[in-house]
Amino acid sequence: MKHGKRFFLVVISILGVMLFSCNDKEMSYETYVAKELASGERNDSLIYGIHFGMTEEEFKSYCTGMNLQKRFMPNPRGSAVRLALQKGFGAPVVFDFFPVLHSDKPITKVTASMKYRDFSYYDKTYDIGNLVIEAEKYFEDGYGGNKFIAIPHENILLKHMYVKIDGNRKILLKPTFEGQELQIEFEDLDVDLE
């Protein structure tokens, strides 16, 4: 009977520590966001001249000009802008992006994806872990500021997502379950969409 009570207390203690740890991680992310927003720093620069605050018309006009220069191309489905990236990556990467548009409001969020152009499950060069490391370095070198930190992934089958917040600009890297694509979100945390 004494061993049963002792076992029960140990289990309750472990569960308490685990629950406290989970809440502590969430609080540290919330604290991170609050600290960056409190800094008052504005970072609107996104991708190759795209920035928060652009209107849909400005975005389309800018992309048309970049397409005429052969710097931007449409992705195969015609649903996003595609860039070919080589510098900073161990193998060529394709980067697709498009803003989330809200009627006549300026751009406050851009969704993107990145994957190795010649991806193969049989070649470790194309492992999603390598892509995450290279993407983190690419964005940290390109934007400066804070480093990426690991946060729990939305999908419980995957371990981490990676976030970098500099003032109002959040960059979130989300590995996918398929293991070949890295989903990316650029979001202005200092806006009200209502």
As residue ranges, the low-confidence spans are: 5-26
The portion of residues forming beta strands comes to: 15-25%
Q: Outline, from the CA principal axes?
A: globular
Mean pLDDT: 85
Q: How does the major sheet shape up?
A: 8 strands, antiparallel
Number of helices: 3
Strand order of the largest sheet: 1-2-3-4-8-7-6-5
The total count of strands amounts to 8
Distance between the termini: 59 Å
C-alpha Rg, in Å? 20 Å
Provide the succession of SSEs.
HHEEEEHEEEE
Helix content: 25-40%
- Secondary structure class reads alpha+beta
Record keyword descriptors for this entry.
alpha+beta; 8-stranded antiparallel beta sheet; globular; 3 helices; 8 strands
Task: Explain this structure.
The protein has 194 residues and is α+β, with helices and mostly antiparallel strands. It has 2 domains: 1-38; 43-188, no CATH class. 34% of the residues lie in helices and 24% in strands. It contains 3 helices and 8 strands; from the N terminus they run ααββββαββββ. The protein has an 8-stranded antiparallel sheet with strand order 1-2-3-4-8-7-6-5, with helices on both faces. The radius of gyration is 20 Å and the shape is globular. It starts with a helix and ends in a 6-residue tail after the last strand.
In short:
The protein is α+β, with helices and mostly antiparallel strands.
Write the layout of secondary structure elements.
Blueprint: H1 2-38, H2 56-68, E1 73-74, E2 81-85, E3 93-99, E4 109-116, H3 128-143, E5 149-152, E6 160-166, E7 169-175, E8 182-188
Antiparallel strand pairs: 1-2, 2-3, 3-4, 4-8, 5-6, 6-7, 7-8
